[in-house]
Specification:
With about 475 residues, this protein is an alpha/beta fold. About 40% of the residues lie in helices and about 15% in strands.
């Protein structure tokens, strides 16, 4: 079969073909006649076929069960339609259910004519299975009562103010918004509020909104009805599981905006609909949400609904970062030593003055969580049986590595995280953006211990882009390419 490829499209395939090969997700490209001119191994594995059976052939001849007017790639060829993060479910020849999310975009040549179409996607089937298993486990787990208040070690006026405010909010039934950097203990404070409230004998359920693919957040929250969509089963969502108790939504800004609208409706009406359901359900739940970014910036970027935020900020609690409450660093470190004594199989001794000095001088970009990790790692890797004589910040070595001493102790600029930023006198918008980018690079690299892959993932950019930005900002980090998570 003759394959007619637009010269511009052919050139693009030659340039980007290898990139598609190594990206690790399904990619396919059709020419204007509907023939496959690119079809990678991930796509072949998903469709349970061989690449050679597909390349150069028309889509309808290879997959005769496809309905031409229902297929996004063929519609894109005919009408120039885009499909962004579209979800569909289908069965493979062996009967395996595929839950597929994809983006399909028509390709135009320099004359403005459609020369082909490209599609990339991901198989969400395994997430659906994990979600179902998680729902079953959570139903058993959260049916049990928790005893006692979570322990919050504190030794500063700032944290005492936070706990006093949280305790006052706990006795009411208003929604709460907890603000704080990563690792400051937002979930711990939410649990504290729950256990101080009249709902303490009911479930406390936490959902990290950034830990699930966006397509699964809605079904995880609201549950599903069998037959509501292909492969759907009857599942209880977190709203049902938490009935009578508290639902903690961590990293709320990662929740899709349309789902945020449904959460707002639930806050107003105390009712919800299961995915695929036709019956309105009720639940008595208190919502506590948390964010680690400026809500005003998220609203400006349209990643957070302003009406939802203003509904939640009735009960606002801001946890200060660890670097702003130095008085708590040593007590917290001692607490973690005692807590993990059994794990390290070591006797607990007082900290030497040199260790206390290091603990107090460090900026702790990962806050309390990072402090605990460093103490545990240092105990486990301690060679002697006496007092702790070295802090191990990096699990790959026995010393603080990954970035130079100059940058390691660099003070992270104080972020205007919880209020609208005002421009520094004399700074243009470009200057302000450069300043903010510089700050984000430092935080990501310090939190990732100089590991390129980790820092790039945190920032949502490629390794090459990160290296370029490090050079542009003249940072002195020693980037480590070999470390991976």
């Amino acid at each position: 079969m003759k394959v007619d490829i637009d010269p511009e499209l052919n050139a693009a395939i030659k340039v980007f073909g290898h990139f598609f090969d190594v990206l690790g997700q399904p990619f396919s490209v059709l020419n204007k006649s509907g023939q496959h001119i690119y079809y990678n191994q991930e796509n072949a594995d998903l469709d349970e076929c061989q690449r050679e059976e597909v390349l150069g052939k028309n889509m309808l001849s290879v997959f005769p069960s496809i309905q031409e007017d229902e297929n996004e790639m063929l519609r894109a060829l005919q009408h120039g339609e885009e499909s962004i993060n579209h979800q569909k479910s289908y069965f493979t020849p062996s009967g395996k259910l595929i839950d597929y999310q994809h983006t399909t975009v028509p390709l135009f040549n320099s004359s403005g004519e459609i020369m082909g179409v490209i599609e990339s996607g991901q198989d969400l089937s395994r997430f659906r299975k994990l979600q179902h298993n998680l729902s079953v486990l959570n139903e058993k787990l959260f049916s049990k009562e928790e005893d006692g208040l979570p322990e919050i070690i504190h030794n500063s006026d700032a944290m005492q103010h936070v706990l006093d405010r949280a305790a006052r909010l706990a006795v009411s039934n208003v929604p709460v918004m907890v603000m704080g950097e990563t690792g400051t203990g937002k979930e711990l404070l939410a649990n504290f509020i729950h256990n101080k409230s009249p709902r303490r004998h009911k479930p406390f359920i936490a959902l990290n909104c950034s830990a699930l693919p966006v397509t699964l957040i809605e079904s995880t929250l609201f549950g599903t009805v069998k037959g509501g969509f292909t492969g759907a089963e009857n599942t209880r969502g977190y709203l049902e599981l938490a009935n009578g108790g508290t639902l903690f939504l961590d990293e709320l800004n990662s929740m899709p905006v349309d789902v945020q609208g449904k959460i707002l409706r639930f806050l107003q009406e105390k009712t919800f609909w299961k995915v695929g359901g036709n019956k309105e359900l009720k639940a008595d739940i208190r919502i506590i949400a948390a964010m680690n970014e400026s809500p005003y910036e998220m609203i400006r970027q349209k990643r957070l609904r302003d009406d939802l935020f203003y509904r939640l900020e009735i009960g606002m609690v801001v946890i200060p970062p660890l670097r702003e409450r130095k008085d708590e660093i040593i007590p917290l470190a001692r607490h973690f030593m005692v807590k993990h004594q059994a794990v390290s199989n070591m006797k607990v001794y007082p900290f030497p003055a040199s260790i206390e000095k290091q603990l107090l001088e460090y900026d702790w970009p990962g806050n309390v969580r990072m402090l605990e990790n460093v103490i545990v790692r240092s105990l486990i890797l301690q060679k002697d049986t006496g007092p702790l004589n070295e802090l191990v910040f990096n699990c790959e070595t026995d010393v603080v590595t990954g970035f130079s001493a100059e940058v390691r102790h660099q003070k992270i600029p104080q972020k205007e995280t919880y209020r609208e930023n005002s421009f520094s006198q004399g700074l243009t918008l470009t200057d302000k953006l450069e300043e903010y980018e510089h700050q984000l690079l430092i935080e990501a690299l310090k939190e990732s211990q100089g590991c390129v892959a980790k820092a790039a993932r945190k920032l949502g950019i490629s390794r090459g882009a990160l290296q370029y930005k490090v050079k542009k900002h003249n940072l002195t980090f020693s980037l480590e390419e070999k470390k991976t998570e």
